[in-house]
TrEMBL record:
Protein's name in the database: Dynein heavy chain 10, axonemal
GO BP annotations listed: microtubule-based movement
Residues annotated as domain Dynein heavy chain tail: 3-162
UniProt xrefs under InterPro entries: DHC, Dynein_heavy_tail
Domain of life of the source: Eukaryota
PANTHER family, A to Z: DYNEIN AXONEMAL HEAVY CHAIN 10 (PTHR22878:SF63), DYNEIN HEAVY CHAIN 6, AXONEMAL-LIKE-RELATED (PTHR22878)
GO annotation, cellular component aspect: dynein complex
One example GO MF annotation: dynein light intermediate chain binding
Signal peptide: none
Record organism: Perkinsus olseni
Length: 425
């Protein structure tokens, strides 16, 4: 073996091996030098970054925040650990400092993550109208988080104080939002109560007693009782009272609920705007939003009511033959003629029933522009004792669907009267 190394070729091989080793050492030294320089710059640059970053998302009313901890620092730490295991490499001071404080940085990042999770819970799910009414509080919340964007970086000493301050700001915003939403729930409950109200009471066909009454006087003494096992066929006035009494009671209850929402809206104004006037300029759009909701709810209630009458008073010929009559109309036979009671009076009362459903909206007084305050009743010039209320009726009554439904029902009733007249002839 020694003779082989002492040979010319052996000497040449040893020389080449030494040169290769020197080349490898030089490459290793140069490569580490480049890494050392880049690592120091990376560590310094990443640690000088702000601790928070803003992320904007389409479709969201507000920006979101993220912990701005560079993943390059984690990679840098892994590389530094590998160099330390190999040995013989002098790590730059910035990297050594990073290694010594990495646990602290990770703890900062975790605290920031928890804080931002609380922020997302506090701000998430806000509707556009809520963002508008809470715009001052949202601005204050962003102000609490602004130091995380500048001037704080990962070398700052005030990160813990910032997290504590931001957490308090988030809790304060969350408390205000909960107060607003609690009041909104009360107002929304009234909207839904109006929307789902039954202005036209149901009519149970299965409980109609068609047995003849003993006498006219007995009929006059009978009462219309929806809770009894049977309802006798009603005359037109009883038919009118059957529905109108229920409608008046229902409207009175709904109006009481509607007029009781003012304090809840004013509470929202006090919480967000700091005033209790019910007319804060900053609340104008918010009050208009709720007024539109009540307008839509009232319109829906009227459509539901007229739909019930439409089913009740308009039907196919086949269906009409299968169900009992609605109204009793008297006629007398005076040879050679049959005298029918006033059909005009019947039509007039049925039309009045339909109009009363529409006039239910007149019981709901509108708010003054930009406020949640009811418009005061106004006296007329001709009759000072007669007060006029500015209600939803004028706008609701112009709804094309309500107009069409009313005309359809009236036409159906007229067709029935034509059939009666033809039959009596």
């Amino acid at each position: 073996m020694q003779s082989l190394l002492d040979s010319p070729k052996g000497q040449q091989a040893c020389g080449d091996y030494v040169e290769l080793g020197k080349a490898i050492l030089k490459y290793e030294k140069d490569l580490f030098g480049e890494w050392r320089k880049a690592a120091a710059m990376t560590a310094t640059e990443c640690l000088n970054r702000s601790i928070l970053a803003v992320e904007k998302h389409e479709g969201r009313a507000s920006s979101t925040y993220a912990v701005n901890f560079a993943p390059e620092l984690i990679e840098l730490m892994k590389e530094a650990q590998n160099f330390d295991l190999i040995g013989g490499f002098e790590l730059p001071g910035a990297v050594l400092n990073l290694a010594l404080q990495m646990d602290k940085y990770k703890d900062y990042a975790e605290q920031l993550r928890v804080m931002l999770q609380g922020y997302e819970e506090a701000i998430g799910g806000l509707t556009m109208v809520q963002c508008k009414v809470l715009h001052t509080q949202i601005a204050d919340l962003h102000k609490c988080l602004r130091p995380g964007l500048t001037p704080l970086n990962w070398n700052s000493l005030g990160i813990v104080d910032f997290v504590e301050s931001a957490t308090r700001g988030i809790a304060a915003f969350k408390n205000i939002r909960e107060q607003v939403e609690k009041s909104e729930e009360r107002v929304q409950a009234v909207v839904e109560s109006i929307e789902q109200s039954i202005l036209v009471r149901p009519f149970d066909w299965t409980k109609t007693d068609l047995s003849p009454s003993p006498s006219t006087s007995t009929l006059a003494e009978d009462s219309v009782d929806s809770s009894s096992d049977y309802q006798r066929v009603m005359d037109v006035q009883e038919f009118y009272d059957f529905f109108e009494t229920h409608r008046l009671s229902e409207v009175e209850k709904l109006v009481d609920q509607y007029e009781a929402i003012g304090p809840f809206l004013i509470k929202i104004e006090e919480t967000t705007a700091g005033t209790k006037s019910g007319a804060a300029e900053s609340m104008r759009e918010y009050y208009a939003y709720w007024e539109r909701k009540f307008f839509n709810a009232i319109t829906t209630a009227l459509v539901r009511g007229l739909s019930t009458f439409q089913v009740l008073l308009t039907s196919t010929a086949a269906a009409s033959n299968q169900r009992p009559p609605l109204i009793k109309i008297r006629s007398e036979f005076n040879p050679p003629e049959v005298v029918v009671g006033s059909l005009h009076g019947v039509f007039k009362l049925i039309t009045k029933l339909l109009q009363n459903v529409l006039h239910s909206s007149a019981a709901f007084v509108r708010w003054m522009d930009g406020t949640c305050l009811l418009v005061p009743t106004q006296s007329t010039e001709l009759d000072e004792e007669k007060a006029l209320a500015f209600s939803f009726y004028k706008d609701v009554s112009q709804n094309p669907a309500l107009i069409e439904m009313t005309m359809t029902i009236q036409n159906s009733v007229q067709q029935v009267f034509q059939t009666i007249n033809k039959f009596m002839r």
